[in-house]
Amino acid sequence: MVMLALDIGATKFAAGTVDSDGVVTDVRRIPVPRAEVWEACRELLTSVAGDAEVTAVGIGAAGPVDVRTGTTGPLNIPEWVHGFELEQAVRKLFPDAIIRFAIDGVCLVLAEQRFGAARGIPNVLALTVSSGIGGGVISNGRVVFGRTGNAGHIGHIIVPGSDEPCACGGFGCVEAVASGPSSVRWARRQGWTGSTGIELSTAARAGDEIAIAALRRAGTALGIAISSAAALLDTDLVVVGGGFAQSGEHLWRSLRDTVAAHARLTFTCGLHVLPSELTDQATLAGAGLLAYDAAEDAPGNCLSF
Q1: 164: which of 32, 78, 176, 270 fits an S-S bond (Cβ 3.0–4.6 Å)?
Q2: What pTM value is reported for the model?
C-alpha cells in the first residue's frame, strides 16, 4: 500500500510517495504541458504508483481552487483556467483511495508547521515566492481554508503605488511585482539582458545595479504584503520559501527592512520572518500529509474538512 502526493505547480507537475514523517520518495517531475494536461498528469501518477495498492492521494494545486467541488483553475494552464475537476479525475484513477485536495499554500504551511521552520508554532503564515506567489495560514493550530479553500492566497494582496497588470485581471498584486518572472520583466525594461530569475540573482550577487534594484523592489513589495497580512492574521511567524526567495541578501534585506518599517503595532512589532527549512519538495510533503492524516486519522491532525 502506498500514499501518493501530487503537486500541480506553476511550471511543473510533481508526484511521489510519502510517509508519516513527511519524507517524499520516488519523486517524478514533468514540465506543465501545453495540451492534454490531465493525460500527462495521469501518466505521472500511474508511473509513481506502479502496481501498488494506493491507499490515499493528497493533492496540492496552484490556485484559484474550489475545494467544495475539487476544482482547480491555475492562471498558467489555459486548458484548466476555467476550472478542471482534478479531485474527481484522481478519484476515478484510484477509486478505492481516500482523496484529499487543497490549494498548494495549505500544503506548504502544513509541511512548514509539522517539519519546517514553523515546527510546533500555532499561528503561522507561509508563503512561496517562485514563478507565482502563494501562501497558507494556520491559526490557533488549525489550517484556515476559507469559503472556497483559497484563504492565504497572499499573491493577490495589492501593493500600494503599483499598477503592474496581473494575470488574475487586476493590477498591483504582489505576484505581479515580486515573483521571479515579474522581477525579470521589470529588470529587462530597465535594460538588463538576462532572462531568468536564477540569472537575475546571479547578476545581483555579481554587483549588477539593475539586478540589485529588481531584487530590492521585490523584497519591498513582499515586505508590504507580509506586514499587511500579519496585521490581519495576528500571526506568530512568517515563513518564506520558493525558488525566487533564495535570491539572496538584496531581496531579504529589503523584505525585512520593510516589515520592520510597516509592522509597528504592538502585536506585529518584531514579527519574525524566516526562510523555509524545507526543499522544493515542501508542497509535496504537505500534500502527502493531507493523505496520511486523512487515511490514518492521525493524532494532532490540524485539518478540518
Answers
A1: 176
A2: 0.91
